[in-house]
Amino acid sequence: MPIRLLPANLVNRIAAGEVVERPASVVKELVENSIDAGASRVVVELREGGKSFISVTDDGHGMGPKELALAIERHATSKLPDDDLVHIGFFGFRGEALPSIGAVGRLSIASRARGAEEAWLIRVEGGATTGPEPTALSTGTRVELRDLFYAVPARLKFLKTARSELNAVVEILERLAMAHPEVAFTLTDDGRNVLRLDSARPDLVGQPGAAQLKRLGDVMGRDFADNAVALDVEREGFRLSGFAGLPTLNRATASMQYLFVNGRPVRDRLLQGAIRGAYQDFLARDRHPLVALFIDCPPELVDVNVHPAKAEVRFQDAALVRGLLVGGIRRALDAAGHRASTTVAGQTLAAFAPMAGVAASPPPGYQSTPRSGGGHTSGVQAAMAAFAPLSPEMARPSMPVAAAEDAATNDFPLGTARAQLFGTYVVAQTKDGIVIVDQHAAHERLVLERMKAALAGQGVRRQALLIPEIVELPAKLAHALLSRAAELEELGLVIEAFGSDAVAVREVPALLGQSDVKGLARDLAEEILELGAAFRLKERLEDICGTMACHGSVRAGRQLTGPEMDALLRQMEATPHSGQCNHGRPTYVELKLSDIERLFGRR
Ligand code: ADP
Ligand code: MG
After folding, report:
1. N or C terminus: which one in the chain shows less Cβ crowding within 10 Å?
2. Nearest atom in ligand 1 to 61's CA
3. Tens digits of residue pLDDT in 27-54
């Protein structure tokens, strides 16, 4: 068979196989073009999730008739002005999106170059071009694609339901929008509003990060905007910015992790692994943080040309980027200190809500007297009614109530301890709310953080026991413990063999205070046996510390004095990450006075 050059429309159709997979990929290419054209507003309209109709309209710089004709030619682009494949500053650069899209559907492009008197229209159908001819359009560009894949029945078969094609479009559009808060986006499907993202309000412009956080919150949810810490670090030409969610805000999957490299949404194994590493100490293995992170670097340090759909990237110095991510996120979380997420308090308050309607009539003696002119809801009244009415003796406080001026001068973030309940929870009063601390979870966290700091510095301080504690253990457990004697010594626990079924504990970590040494040795031995040999104790520091803290001085069930409780609160304030325990559960919750007032119908 003779060798021949393939006709252009066949080449385009082959290329379309790479670029155009489904409606979402068409939307991606067209919206990227709109952003590249400097648009401030982009409107996407679909029918049947894009299967029968897609249009993208923008108010960008537009095109004249000559440019229109060129735009649909293969490898025609305005975005590589000096043949430089290294300095890619735009989304586009291949010049193959429009011709490819024109090869798989009925394409029309109307455009009006900025400042021009008239608009022009060009059509491509089955490889045949008509136009440019004059048309009506007030500004910018409007691209329409009908009957995607009508000429490629094999592809048509692979399209999913309108619903799932629409979902894919939403996802792509959200990702692009997150990187461009200055652009407004709307999406409709069959005339129904699906997505509407307004551009930054004028009063947010100029506040660094505010417009971006607003947009991220619009896409990822209010929770994220309320519970994320800002990041902005630079190293050797790489800048990492964006927001990282507090560990207490977490999900069962990594789907709420958004990454951008030079403004491009990417999905990249290396970067996802780095995020996992950064949160490792704060989250259980099966929970995932929420992040929206932006890496910007000189274009020559990253290759975005790996794949036409450009979701993967290749960094020249991958280790540097990983280090920047892990270090940057950790430092931001450190700076957040003891902050726990507000979602926790929200959940606590919500727990009152189900009472609404349960108590249909108020208990005897309960007088419903709305304070604010009937402004409060029956739900709150019902919740109130569900509390047993106080008899005079019960109403008398069991704890001395602190003087009012004392509370007024209290500026500690976690407040002043007022009571201990159930031998487990410390209740403190802050300037504008109450804080409830799980003393056991908090202490575990304090031990872990101090242990980490000690290991990074001079090492863990040990305290010798006056008389070594002899702990009798089954031989198997004693052996497990002794096999890790050297590592345990680094962590502050000095043990030696004592016969075949006992160990002698000579020294314990000083920060544990009065420990239950026997219980500690037994639990550690069991833990070591269960975990097996294939790890270093330091890698499992959080487990080990949890076990140690369990047998340390502050346990659930132990009565604390006022000064002891205050000391715990002050230590938590001074300790990074003390807002969550080693498994991402909160160590304290805070209820704002305003929420309490709302609960009681005072607001
Ligand atoms: P690329 O984006 O890789 O350059 P495309 O095929 O997507 O390739 O677009 C070809 C050219 O058409 C672009 O380089 C640009 O000059 C022009 N163009 C496409 N879409 C628009 C638009 N919405 N507004 C203005 N110009 C556009
Ligand atoms: Mg393009």
Report:
1. N
2. 25
3. 999 999 999 999 999 999 999 999 999 9
Among 335, 363, 386, the domain-final residue is: 335
Determine the structural domain holding residue 488 and report its residue range.
Answer: 377-603
Task: Kindly give, in sequence order, each residue whose CB lies less than 8 Å from that of residue 513, ignoring residues fewer than 6 positions away.
Answer: 552, 553
Q: What sign for the dihedral angle of Cα 178, 170, 44, 147? A: positive
Same domain? 40 vs 101: yes
pLDDT at 458: 78
Q: Which of 25, 77, 114 to mutate to test the pocket of ligand 1 (most atoms within 8 A of CB)?
A: 77
Residue 57 has pLDDT above 80, yes or no: yes
The region that residue 50 occupies, defined by phi over 0 for left and psi between -120 and 50 for alpha, beta otherwise, is: left
Q: Which residues contact 87 (CB under 8 A, 6 or more apart)?
A: 299, 300
End position of a domain, from candidates 197, 228, 254: 197
- pLDDT greater than 70 at residue 340: no
Distance 9 CA to ligand 1 centre (A): 19
Band (pLDDT 50/70/90 cuts) for residue 18 is low
Q: Whose CA is nearest to atom 16 of ligand 1?
A: 78
**What domain count does the chain have?**
3
Give me ligand 2 centre to Cα 98, in Å.
Answer: 7
Query: What is the domain-level CATH number for residue 514?
Result: 3.30.1370.100
